[in-house]
Specification:
The chain is of the alpha/beta class. It contains ten helices and nine strands.
């Protein structure tokens, strides 16, 4: 059952924040939804957004400026939290790179994380919940995200192209097996089995893909991003797309950094990209 935490009029539609009991996580989880104005009975396309490290279900809705464009395009926006809260794992709130706010959208297999840190399964659960509870056209669902969430969006889309018809990302952690953030998170949550890591590495998944997104994938990356060379590695994903024959547009922007000023600048482009790909 959904518990409505708050509701706000927004660009002619409604911004809502919810809590619910998650079967996948085994704890209450929160998510946010923007619902644009639409005729009664009309089913709309939906776009999931996955946020980055230290963020929660409010970050995107309050910082990205996406509702205005979603209202114009007739898109429902959905943003989940970035990790379980209150899992009781010792030290889970001590390090911003793992634990609370840093679930990395994987299903942990290593103790003690494996009991509740099951964010990949949670996203599948939330997808089903959104389709059941809101006026969403299940054949027109997209996903995008930022940084850790860009990693999550690419992985979810590549592993579940039957659920997500469109995908884009802002400054994604595009090759997590090859960067300090990814290595730390994967070792913590998944242990030392690199075959397990590959299941959550967008570049590794793309190398084995058969161009699952014929309308293309969009990535925006700031060249003033201090994490670009050490943590993000879009070049690795770009090479994997070329190998797989996957159409990809990476737009590299001088001066822009890793934050939400960058995201807000190019948000309209991403909403239009998904609206076009999710058109009937």
């Amino acid at each position: 059952m959904l518990e409505l935490i708050s509701e706000h009029a927004c660009f002619g539609g409604t911004q809502r924040f919810y809590r619910h009991a998650s079967t996948a996580i085994g704890l209450p989880m929160r998510f946010s939804v923007f619902i644009p104005a639409a005729p009664a009975g009309q089913r709309l396309p939906a776009l999931f957004y996955l946020a980055g490290l230290t963020c929660n279900e409010e970050t995107f809705m309050t910082k990205a400026g996406a509702q205005r464009y979603a209202a114009e395009a007739g898109l429902i926006l959905v943003a989940p939290d970035t990790s379980p809260r209150g899992a009781g794992v010792p030290g889970e709130a001590d390090d911003w790179e793992v634990g609370v706010g840093a679930g990395f959208y994987v299903d942990a297999t290593a103790a003690p994380w494996r009991t509740h840190y099951r964010m990949h399964s949670y996203l599948l659960e939330l997808h089903a919940l959104v389709l059941a509870e809101f006026a969403v056209d299940g054949a027109r669902v997209g996903i995008f995200g930022h940084s850790m969430g860009g990693h999550g969006a690419l992985v979810m889309a590549l592993r579940h192209p039957d659920l997500f018809r469109s995908v884009s990302a802002f400054a994604p952690i595009a090759a997590p097996s090859l960067c300090p953030w990814g290595e730390k998170a994967f070792t913590t949550y998944l242990g030392g089995d690199h075959a397990m890591w590959a299941q959550y590495d967008a570049s590794e998944l793309m190398r084995k893909a058969q161009a699952p997104f014929p309308k293309g994938i969009l990535i925006d990356q700031g060249l003033g991003d201090k994490f670009l060379r050490t943590q993000l590695r879009p070049d690795v994903f770009e090479n994997a797309c070329a190998q797989a024959g996957q159409r990809l547009e990476i737009r590299r922007h001088a001066s822009y950094d890793h934050g939400y000023y960058f995201i807000a600048t190019f948000m309209h482009d991403h909403i239009r990209f998904h609206a076009s790909n999710l058109a009937p």
